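It is worth pausing here to work through a concrete case rather than discussing structure prediction in the abstract. The textbook approach is simple: state the sequence, then state the predicted structure, then interpret. We follow exactly that order.
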Amino acid sequence: MARAWDNAKAGMRRHVFRTWTACAVLAAYVYGWVYVPELLTWWKRMTADVIEAGCGLLPYPWNDRIEATLGNFGLWVQITLAILAFRLLVWLVMSALRATWPIRHRRQEHSMRSPAEDPG
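Step two, the predicted structure:
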């Protein structure tokens, strides 16, 4: 029963993370549309260049077909790539924090020990 509850909690955390990151990117898109349109222009050109370069690596009939298809879904591809990039950034930051957390936590535990508990 405890394992099922842990799986349910992990699933909820996943959904909250996905929803939060998608909403954050959409809010940033609206903010950019109103206040910083040059940032959106840069993102559009960068994603178009990445798609073009990626499709250029494919053999002839497929590179044109895939590039045209992705170009037709332009806005959705841009938003999806922004969400994925933001999720990767958040994941990297959280991984770095988790990697440093046990070190800080151990230091605090060690400094809070009484002299009688200290093994050394």
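Step three, interpretation. The chain is about 90% helix and 0% strand. Residues 2-109 form one domain.
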